[in-house]
Design brief:
Layout: E1 4-5, E2 13-14, E3 22-28, H1 43-55, E4 59-64, H2 67-79, E5 87-91, H3 99-102, E6 105-109, E7 115-119, H4 132-135, H5 137-145, E8 149-151, E9 153-154, E10 157-158, E11 167-168, E12 173-177, H6 178-182, H7 195-206, E13 210-214, E14 231-233, E15 238-243, H8 252-263, E16 274-279, E17 285-286, E18 289-290, E19 299-300, E20 304-309, H9 314-325, E21 330-335, H10 346-349, E22 350-354
Parallel strand pairs: 3-4, 4-5, 7-8, 12-13, 15-16, 20-21
Antiparallel strand pairs: 1-13, 2-6, 3-22, 6-7, 9-10, 11-12, 14-15, 17-18, 19-20
Length: 360
């Protein structure tokens, strides 16, 4: 299968690649204990370590629901040695903590280069009932930052899109999965919107000329196929794709099928993407359920690439692969065994805000 070409028309905006310079990273302080049943106690400390690593290279903008929650966050961050001058708090109520999927998606004007927030909607992954507070965060952020909001619509109706369902190289190519965005019966985000309609949305609002449609996501993923658990750009031409070596594992066939797809795909300039294998950790289970443990859920910050680790022999190999590919910043492991009990890790928790002026 090849990438889907789009009609020729100038895009209005561009979604920068994650490795382009950030002004800040947004993260929602954890508060929903049901996300980590029986394992919530270590979660704030894991967040504090994430913030400590982020703050070394950029501001961190923390979503808190109340004064009390802000005080708790300040205590955890203070004890972890985070410079308080590098952290800002925004009292925006949230339902959950998965900022990648509901947080502000910052795009750059194709003409003047200024930032705006692309206002996609969020509906709890078309699965959970608690999402209305999360859905309001982009507009609240736009008001706080005094940025324009671009209402994303297709056929006159709002478009639902989570940040974890896409990944871009910043030059016009986008990775996503058919399972997440095109399944007609399971967790349907946009009933009636098909491939062509979504590609037109990506072009107009994200500056995407070339969509690389993969198939299925990994086992245990409650989002039904988010691409940030299986395949990611690390530069404009290179992707890492998770590879499962055990043919008996549930992830083996879907990941091999995605590898076969990528072999026939092209980037926006007609070049083949370079595909590098990223290992998978051994299966992690909670109450008999497979958890979506994946090294592909890394986050590229200004000062470091933060990579989830799982007390697994493959941790070192995954860190080594990414260190070979990303040479301009440190590659740092973050213990994520407790985090993944919430069915997500580092990329799911974070959302980048590009630097105000394009550079790099």
């Amino acid at each position: 299968m090849t990438a889907s070409p789009l009609p020729v028309a100038g895009p209005r905006f561009r979604l920068p690649a994650e490795w382009e310079p950030h002004e800040a990273t947004w993260i929602g302080w954890p508060h929903n204990r049901s996300d980590w049943p029986g394992r919530f106690a270590p979660i704030p400390w894991a967040y504090a370590e994430i913030v400590r690593k982020l703050a070394a290279g950029e501001r961190v903008r923390v979503l808190v629901g109340s004064r009390v929650e802000e005080e708790r966050a300040r205590r955890h961050l203070g004890r972890t040695g985070v410079d308080p001058a590098r952290v800002e708090y925004f009292r925006f109520p949230t339902d959950r903590g998965w900022t990648r999927d509901f947080g502000p998606l910052f795009v750059r004007s194709a003409g003047r280069g200024g930032l705006a927030i692309a206002r996609f909607r969020f509906n709890g992954w078309a699965r959970y009932p608690d999402w209305r507070k999360d859905d309001r965060v982009p507009e609240r952020a736009a008001r706080a930052l005094r940025l324009p909001v671009v209402d994303v619509r297709a056929g006159g109706r709002p478009v639902v899109l989570e940040g974890g369902s896409i990944d871009v190289n910043g030059r016009g190519s986008l990775l996503t999965t058919e399972e997440c965005l095109l399944d007609p019966s399971v967790q349907v985000r946009n009933p009636g919107l098909g491939r062509k309609e979504l590609e037109a949305v990506f072009r107009e609002y994200l500056g995407v000329m070339n969509v690389l449609w993969l198939g299925r996501g990994i086992a245990g993923d409650d989002t039904h196929g988010h691409v940030d658990d299986l395949c990611r750009f690390v530069d404009r031409r290179t992707v890492v794709l998770c590879r499962e070596r055990d043919p008996r594992d549930a992830n083996y066939r879907p990941l091999e099928e995605n590898r076969e797809r990528l072999q026939g795909m092209r980037l926006e300039d007609g070049a083949r993407p370079e595909v590098v294998d990223l290992p998978m950790p051994a299966p992690l289970l909670f109450a008999g359920r497979r958890l979506p443990a994946s090294y592909a859920n890394f986050y590229v910050a200004n000062a470091a690439v933060l990579v989830p680790t799982f007390n697994d022999p493959a941790d070192r190999l995954a860190l080594g692969v990414l260190a070979e590919l990303v040479s301009d910043r440190a590659v740092v492991g973050i213990h994520a065994v407790e985090l993944v009990w919430g069915l997500g890790t580092l990329h799911c928790l974070t959302q980048q805000q590009p630097a105000a002026t394009a550079r790099g």
